[in-house]
Amino acid sequence: MSLLNVRNLSVTFQTGGGLLRAVDGVDVSVEPGEILAIVGESGSGKSVSMLAVMGLLPWTAGITADEMSFDGQDLRSMSARARRRIIGKDISMIFQEPMSSLNPCFTVGMQIREALRQHTDLDRKGRHARCIELFEMVGIPDPERRLGAFPHQLSGGMNQRAMIAMAIACRPRLLIADEPTTALDVTIQAQILDLLTGLQKETGMGLILITHDMGVVAETAERVAVQYAGQKVEEQQVAQLFETPHHPYTAALLAALPERATERRLPTIPGVVPGLHDRPEGCLFSPRCKFADERCRTVPPPVQPPAIGLARCHYPLAVPAGEETA
Amino acid sequence: MNQTVLKATDLSRDYEVGGGLFSKPGIVRAVADVSFEVQAGKTLAVVGESGCGKSTLARLVTMIEAPTGGSFTLAGTEVTPEKWSDLRTDIQIVFQDPYGSLNLRQRVGQILEEPLKINRPEIGAKERREKAREMMRLVGLREEYIDRYPHMFSGGQRQRIAVGRALMLEPKLLVLDEPVSALDLSIQSQILNLLLDLQERLDLAYLFISHDLSVVRHVADDVAVMYLGRMVEKGSKDDVFTAPRHPYTRALLSATPKADPRAERGRIRLSGELPSPLNVPPGCPFAPRCWKAEDKCRRDRPRLDGGPQPVACHFPEAPQPGAAGRAEPATA
Ligand SMILES: Nc1ncnc2c1ncn2[C@@H]1O[C@H](COP(=O)(O)OP(=O)(O)OP(=O)(O)O)[C@@H](O)[C@H]1O
Ligand SMILES: Nc1ncnc2c1ncn2[C@@H]1O[C@H](COP(=O)(O)OP(=O)(O)OP(=O)(O)O)[C@@H](O)[C@H]1O
Ligand SMILES: [Mg+2]
Ligand SMILES: [Mg+2]
Question: Which helix (H) or strand (E) holds B148?
Fold first, then answer.
């Protein structure tokens, strides 16, 4: 059974300019011990969809889903109390902006101890020992002293590591890591990724990794979902995705990697993500797609079968011989 | 015909920190005796770990702060604080966060005109507006957006505005402090292309600060590697990337994730602590984490040696044949 199973999730926000579809019919599933990466354009709903799973969106958000379950339990119908027992313990999240998710009024040590107090039966001494152990795991030097620091007294990278320590404190079964290493440099990033993949292997933790760093995706993920304008446009095993992308957006994204550059000018994707008022009738990527025709602009594309990367496209690329397109 | 735009000699910047109720203030040497040159039309990339002094170096050469030691020249003129106001227009800076560095209450036109208003008061309002329009064309923004506010633009467009503003005074050198780190891939490639175009057209020199080595590899002509405020290696991009001489450079290159799931990993695992910048050990600052460190390294601080690819290391990696056979790092 999947650890997390989300089907047809949509999230809308009422904004000054009208109704914004931040997430539009997204499916997410993660098995125990699996690493799923979510990549895609800035603003494509990666964070919002995961915040919806955590139940952390503001009340202004309109959330609908055909299914949203953790370990077989329906997250939508359960009581607020039952949900609180799961969120923060069995499912935890490393947030994109560490400064906005740590409380500036409490030391980082107090914040981790509080999480441990709520969700474990460790005593005072046990909680302190676990804090030290966690800080060592995330590579914060001099943990005894750092636990007594307030967030503003630590550097950006240090706060990010404190957040990671807090997120793994209660040994979650599913960890959602939203850009967990952006403020860190590569040698420490490598250490954190080793830590997370180590936990995933040892404890069977599922891991959802949101990142725009394709290098990190290539080295850590097993499966990759690509989002564009609130929709999932492709999903494949990592090696296949990098080798044979089926959706033109995925292909364009990979072509923009400086590592793949063959000349000084990098390939770019012309245009911008559609806004509230220029959302196309058909495929949302069609205004920027070099393969788009009239059908793409007017008819919403189908989702192709798994062998074609679940590509949401009328004309998927590199269709394997003998495969029927939807 | 290389034309040196910026030449720094032993630049240093100390900060006094701490000095709370129970502790003595300490000195952080954020930048220590750093020397380099940047040529017109060329890009020098500065790489290194967070906190190694890259942004401090940027603030020194853009005259936001004065160095506490050393000196630098700009197109041959020695830069001293008295001359700042005359020379500042020659060096401009673009920061990482286009949102934080733009005034959100100003329209794009005003943002672009502001540097002219302050530094070129002799230019009239009409001509100023014309120059702002020209700049919008140059950085690839539609002129009709001139009255829009920053929040109405995407991240990449905002970074174009920031680049445009920095170019209004026709600088000789642009300091780019993590200019694409906050942008996603499709926008990153637009900005990198823009920077390369502008460099060609205007013969601009770039001091390009980044921790993303795949970006550095694409844009740089030369690379300088910093560690705890010190320059530990310097050389042409090809030499530094293909034959790094400092063990730290090698570790850094090996830790950069490759966007290829089938690539060999071979990442060097560093053990040991990054020393506190308040308490840099007497010998080589990298010694506590280095797999080759010997007593000599912990005792004597290595100085940058000579040659085309100088390195500050007692036991540099030896790409030359015959010198191999030293300790090798643990890899994963
Ligand atoms: N509370 C909110 N009210 C209104 N709109 C919101 C709110 N939170 C997010 N949005 C909008 O929802 C869309 C999706 O945002 P989200 O943060 O999920 O993007 P993302 O894919 O995580 O992007 P990034 O890569 O930049 O983090 C964006 O257009 C965003 O502006
Ligand atoms: N105003 C200041 N007062 C005291 N210390 C400072 C000050 N500015 C910088 N430092 C210290 O100087 C060192 C270098 O900082 P700097 O911001 O230059 O690093 P950086 O290489 O740009 O790092 P990053 O990659 O994280 O941006 C750090 O140890 C920092 O804490
Ligand atoms: Mg996000
Ligand atoms: Mg910096």
Answer: none
Protein residues with C-beta less than 5 angstroms from the ion ligand 4 = B 55
The residues with which B173 forms a beta bridge, in sequence order, are B91, B205
Q: What is the overall mean pLDDT for chain A?
A: 92
**Interface contact flag, A141 B273, Cβ < 8 Å:** yes
B239 domain residue, yes or no: no
Q: Is B30 in the pocket of ligand 2 (CB under 6 A)?
A: yes
Q: Which of B189, B194, B249 to mutate to test the interface with A (most CBs of A within 10 A)?
A: B189
User: DSSP assignment of B125-143, as one string?
Assistant: HHHHHHHHHHHHHHTT--G
Q: How far is B30 from chain A (nearest CA, A)?
A: 15
Nearest residue in B to A140, CA atom = B273
Output the domain CATH number for residue B72: 3.40.50.300
Q: How far, in Å, CA of B121 to CA of B299, rounded?
A: 56
* B205-209 vs B222-227, strand pairing mode: unpaired
Cα–Cα distance for residue pair B126/A223, rounded to 1 Å: 56
Query: Cβ distance B17 to B71 under 8 Å?
Result: no
Residue B4 pLDDT greater than 90, yes or no: yes
Q: Does the residue B203 lie in any domain?
A: yes
Is any Cβ of chain A less than 8 angstroms from the Cβ of B256? yes
Residue range A53-62, pLDDT digits in tens: 999 898 889 9
- Which residues, 6 or more positions from B220, have their beta carbon under 8 angstroms from its beta carbon? B43, B44, B45, B208, B237
Protein residue closest via CA to atom 18 of ligand 2: B53
Tens of pLDDT along A74-119?
999 888 889 888 998 999 999 887 667 788 899 999 999 999 999 9
The rounded Å distance from CA B51 to ligand 4 centre is: 7
Around B50, how many Cα atoms within 13 Å sit in the side-chain half-sphere? 15
Same domain for B74 and B190, yes or no, is yes
Ligand nearest the Cα of residue B177 is: 4
Q: Is A82 helix (H, G, I), strand (E, B) or coil?
A: helix
CB contact under 8 A, A42 and B184: yes
Q: Is B19 among the domain residues?
A: yes
ipTM rounded to 2 decimals = 0.83
Domain total in chain B: 2
Q: B50 and chain A: CB distance < 8 Å anywhere?
A: yes
Indicate whether residue B210 lines ligand 2 (CB < 6 A).
Answer: no
Domain that holds residue B56: 4-220
Taking the C-alpha atoms of residue B154 and residue B131, their distance in angstroms, rounded to an integer, is 23
Same domain flag for B165 and B41: yes
Q: Which residues neighbour B101 within 8 Å (Cβ) at sequence distance 6 or greater?
A: B94, B95, B162
- Residue B321 has a pLDDT of 39
**Phi, psi values for residue B110, rounded to 5°:** -65, -40
CA distance linking residue B115 with residue B297, whole number of Å: 48
The minimum-distance atom of ligand 2 relative to the CA of B31 is: 14
pLDDT in tens, A212-245: 899 999 999 999 999 999 999 999 999 999 999 9
Domain end among B205, B220, B235: B220
Residues from chain A that touch B256, judged by Cβ atoms under 8 A, are 186, 215
Same domain, B201 and B260: no
B329 touches chain A (CB under 8 A): no
